TrEMBL record:
It comes from Streptococcus danieliae. This is NAD kinase. GO terms for molecular function: ATP binding; metal ion binding; NAD binding; NAD+ kinase activity. Its cofactor is a divalent metal cation. The lineage of its organism: Bacteria, Bacillati, Bacillota, Bacilli, Lactobacillales. SUPFAM superfamilies: NAD kinase/diacylglycerol kinase-like (SSF111331). One of its GO terms (biological process) is NADP+ biosynthetic process. It is found in: Cytoplasm.
């Protein structure tokens, strides 16, 4: 990588601790002529807050994935997208000075809404996309790689990325997927299962090349949740989900915490000797 000035965008939530860290990190970076703090066309985006904040930073810069790399600083516990804790700013600055452009990337989900009118709208998700109905039971056909798989009845269907597998997907009973596995996971949200209605009941892990399609049987309003964004959509002929051709790049450094350590620390904690 050329030894040019790195443009760094600091994106922060409103929590007092995050604001303090933002002020401190800004003060630490300003003296270096190698860095320029700018939210316009950055090379590196540092999100300060939690995983939710990193999701917001991703959505702000998702059109620049070919140029930008992300770093997460967590002002609470260590998160899934955040490599640094708020007391590790010295190490972060050191790693930024040593950085030669190395990156570690994770798969993203592309959702295309095909409307009955023929219009198509596209969205990108870092964690997941969920299609649901809130007023009535959602009835929709699920197709996996063009195979009509099941007629779903229930609250909704969630499609998650590997890194999103520890978020809403996990609460729905889905599996935790290592982020190097390029696959999507389909999980049911409160499916109706009885002698008349039948779905698989477990989550399904779908490989990179396979398309997942959700075909609603009703024209009425469905809610599409894409990470932390909510859209009301109607007259949809199908929702098409697939792994996106670009990944989200993070700045790689020796600090990168093992995924299994993150899962253990977030959900299990220390195992006490008996
Ligand atoms: P939020 O409702 O304020 O926070 C949801 C929680 O999910 C936060 O604790 C957040 O961590 C955590 N989180 C986000 N991404 C994660 C990931 N990949 N793995 C593990 N935990 C993760 O909403 P938000 O902060 O804007 O985040 C939106 C996300 O919340 C959605 O994408 C969805 O996955 C998740 N969510 C989960 C449920 C559920 O589990 N029942 C319900 C709604 C939404 P931080 O505290 O570090 O920010």
């Amino acid at each position: 990588m050329k030894n040019t000035v790195k443009r760094i965008a600091l994106i922060v939530n409103q929590r007092p601790r995050s604001q303090e860290v933002f002020q401190k990190l800004s003060r630490m970076l300003r003296p270096y002529k190698q860095f320029e703090l700018s939210r316009k066309n950055p090379d590196i985006v540092i999100s300060i807050g939690g995983d939710g904040m990193l999701l917001s930073a991703f959505h702000r810069y998702k059109d620049q994935l070919d140029k930008v790399r992300f770093i997460g600083v967590h002002t609470g516990h260590l998160g899934f997208y955040t490599d640094y804790r708020d007391f590790e700013l010295d190490l972060l600055v050191q790693n930024l000075l040593l950085d030669q452009g190395a990156q570690i990337s994770y798969p993203l989900l592309q959702i295309k809404i095909h409307y009955q009118s023929g219009d198509i709208k596209e969205y990108l998700a870092l964690n997941e996309a969920t299609v649901r109905r809130t007023d009535r039971t959602m009835v929709a056909d699920l197709h996996l790689n063009q195979v009509p798989f099941e007629r779903f009845r229930g609250d909704g269907i969630c499609i998650s990325t590997p890194t999103g597998s520890t978020a809403y997907n996990k609460s729905l009973g889905g599996s935790v997927l290592h982020p190097t596995i390029e696959a999507l996971q389909v999980t049911e949200v409160a499916s109706l299962n009885n002698r008349v209605y039948r779905t698989l009941g477990s989550s399904v892990i779908v490989p990179r090349k396979d398309k997942i399609e959700i075909l609603p049987l009703s024209d009425s309003t469905h809610t599409l949740l894409v990470d932390n964004h909510v859209y009301q959509v109607e007259q949809v002929s199908r929702f098409e989900c697939q792994i996106y051709h670009r990944k989200i790049p993070f700045m790689a450094s020796s600090k990168h915490t093992s995924f299994w350590e993150r899962v253990r620390d977030s959900f299990i904690g220390e195992v006490e000797d008996e």
